[in-house]
Amino acid sequence: LQSKFPDLGLTIFSRMSALAAETGAINLSQGFPDFACDAALLNGVNAALQAGHNQYAPMPGLPLLRQAIAHKFEASAGLLVDPEREITITAGATQALYTAIGTVLRAGDEAIILEPAYDSYAPAIVAQGAVPVRVSLAPPHFAVDWQAVAAAVTPRTRLIIVNNPNNPATSIFSRADLDALAGIAEQHDLLVLSDEVYEHLVFDGQQHSSVLSHPQLRPRSFAVYSFGKTFHATGWKVGYCVAAPALMAEFRKLHQYLVFSVSTPMQHALAAHLQLAASWQGLAVFYQQKRDHLAAGLQAAGFTLLPSAATYFQLVDYSAIRPDLGELAFAEWLTREHGVASIPVSAFYADGRDHHIVRFCFAKQQQTLDAAISRLAGLR
Ligand code: PMP
Ligand code: GLN
């Protein structure tokens, strides 16, 4: 077989997690919690299995789960979403992203992505024979230059992909950002794909603004979410996509032939759990404490902190520790020599540009964070 994707290798997350396992390092690289999901959620899985919910779910997802999601949108953000026509349950956010991209793009189309970009966007675009057009954001704030985005639009542009809150930048969009995005999308009749998997992990009292809350963006956007992030269950691979009925009808055409439907017992358990009051509340407070704890330890170790407004990641500049090393070399050195694994942010830029910044995940138990902090305390 002649490779269709000669430039794609193993993802940076697989690579750094493998290096952490091989060297016995504490793994703060790939983003996933190292603590258990809520016991009630786990019991819900068992109950669903025992109740015989072991056959195919309806193609768009269990009605109960879609209704529970619609209730959550209303309760958490005052958003009205039609569970029947506007929500589809997917195999994680990754499949939702891929399906939305496959639904919109034809060969030769262009899609604008903002860098640093989560790693799955560009390959999904390229797989359609379409072309990713990149607009880069710069540390420490990674603010979007909307004029640069507007300048990147060509007659072939069909889609703008945004990630709000942003992994790895940890930044969030303001209302003005959404207005600017809406202006460009309307002017050029573009669709928007908004990856909002970290919607509930927003800190310091700030608010997440979804494309779904913006009247101009609402009819032209796909928004993507993941129970992996909200319920500490990244291994379940259950997420969902929300879009206006006309867009969702097209999305489902592809969805039904990609996966048809996703795990029935998990959908039952998630529906039951979502109906519990507060099952998704308190996440920001929970993670903000972890952020502050790890941040203090990293600062004491000699790293310069970047702002972490959202997600479960903390970015740091390591120039004061090893200015001689590039990001990948630094992340590997830190893993091998000091037993703590991180992610080089250069992995999120197509040209691999180096800012001397690495990403640490703080979705970890207190004892894991303490152990990492004490290993890093020996850095200087
Ligand atoms: N988008 C972003 C920005 C992510 O960080 C992740 C998970 N790391 C995903 C999508 C994928 O989510 P899932 O695991 O539900 O496929
Ligand atoms: N989203 C996770 C991260 O950013 C990784 C997911 C994956 O390994 N594909 O670390």
From TrEMBL:
GO terms for molecular function: transaminase activity. Pfam families: Aminotran_1_2. The keyword Transferase applies. It comes from the Bacteria. Residues 25-376 form the Aminotransferase class I/classII large domain. Keywords: Aminotransferase, Pyridoxal phosphate, Transferase. Its cofactor is pyridoxal 5'-phosphate. The keyword rRNA processing does not apply. InterPro entries: Aminotransferase_I/II_large, Kynurenine-oxoglutarate_AT, PyrdxlP-dep_Trfase, PyrdxlP-dep_Trfase_major, PyrdxlP-dep_Trfase_small. SUPFAM superfamilies: PLP-dependent transferases. PANTHER family: FI04487P. This is Putative 8-amino-7-oxononanoate synthase. It comes from Chitinimonas prasina. The lineage of its organism: Bacteria, Pseudomonadati, Pseudomonadota, Betaproteobacteria, Neisseriales.
